[in-house]
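Give me structure tokens for this 512-residue protein.
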Amino acid sequence: MTAKVMSMGIFGMRSFMVEVEADISGGKYRFDMVGLPDTAVTEARERVQAAIKNSGYSFPFNHIVVNLAPADVKKEGSVYDLPIFVALLIAAKQLNIDTAENAFIGELSLSGEVRPVNGVLPMVIEAKNAGIKRVFIPYGNAGEAAVVEEIEIYPVKNTRQLIDFFKGDRTTDEELKMYERTEEKVSDDREAILDFSDVLGQESAKRALEIAAAGGHNILMSGPPGSGKSMLAKRLPTILPDMTFPEALEITKLYSIAGELKNKSGLVKSRPFRSPHHTVSPAALSGGGTVPRPGELSLAHNGVLFLDEFPEFTRAAMEVMRQPMEDGEVTISRVAGTLTYPCSFMLVAAMNPCPCGFAGHPIRECTCSQGAVARYRNKISGPLLDRIDIQIDVPAATYNEISGQGEAEESSAEIKKRVEKTREIQRKRFEGTEITCNAKMTATQVRRFCVMDDEAAEMMKTYYEEAGLSGRTYDKVLKVARTIADMDGYDIINRDHIFEALCFKQIIKGGN
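Here you go.
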């Protein structure tokens, strides 16, 4: 007898429906798995066999063929254990259910426990779009699956519970019930713990970070150890606008696929903050692998990517960031096809001014030669630096600042209100386009929206000719000036806006 149940698979950010067909015929025992399964899928034979036996049913020791359709798409992971289990019991006439409106996802233990898997959220979204009425998922994935509305979610703890449900047995202690949706959020106490009011002094750096947040600009901070670069960077997400639902859904899908959801919980509402070590490989940044997964660039999508000790990253790691920063997505080519992950993030980089860290320090003496300093700074790719809108010095804090004898510090909430007001101006400006902030403007939009008065235009012309700016750098300065003008409530960019924007360029000059 042949049985068919529905499941789902993942390829990049895209989910697709999978028909799991099981056929049992007479003859010597053999268990064939077809439909381009990977190793994890073929190992389901042993897991399913043990789970059937330990659920109190007889495993059919005949010729078994399991087909995963479409057959031309690679099937990866242990997500197909549960649908294979159900299909085999139906084919063996030990279970009689209508599977037309049902879909199944989950890995099985040998005892029949249903274990959580990655990528449940995009798979449930695909099931809903395909007209599936209810989906049976691992109990541990219930929170993320419940984000999807207009589809019934049934969290399954074990196979015994699932079988009892289909047989109509409601007398068990662990009766399988439809999940009741409540508003959930991934646990993230960062915003509750971190606040800009913790940072004493560094008013210029705070101003630069506020401008960066208001316009979505990339920023590089250079300063001695202990000046507060990391402290400032970690607090940047606390002044960024709250994510919209589509933004939150997209990042939750990414984290679901990557297995990064904390406790497999619900919608991610806090903007991501990723801080990979400088020894990170290019592949870990861009993503990929035998089983493709999003990398650090994509996991920072809609949030902040913080690269501390920036010059210590390998040249290969730096170069792998260049095109994704420009395109807002990472493209990975595989034999099975090309997959794309989104990666629209704010880059925040931090570095020492020299190898010892104390060049320009008011007290500590720098022990580096001019050649050593030049080599250190030249580790950073010039074209990559050209993609960073704002560069600032973060000097060592003074005694009055560090002792708290200065003015009271602004909280993140106060700064965030100004940032949100500025972002709202940009939202209206770019309404009807895919652009969300000034930093993402195209060259055509720069000419249209970055209008200068006569004094500002004259200052920009003089600096362009004397400094030998590239066309890209010219546009970057105008984008930052546009953000500063928005913050001040000006439609036309004036001389002060251009002057402040120019102060943020070319502190560090990179190599080729």
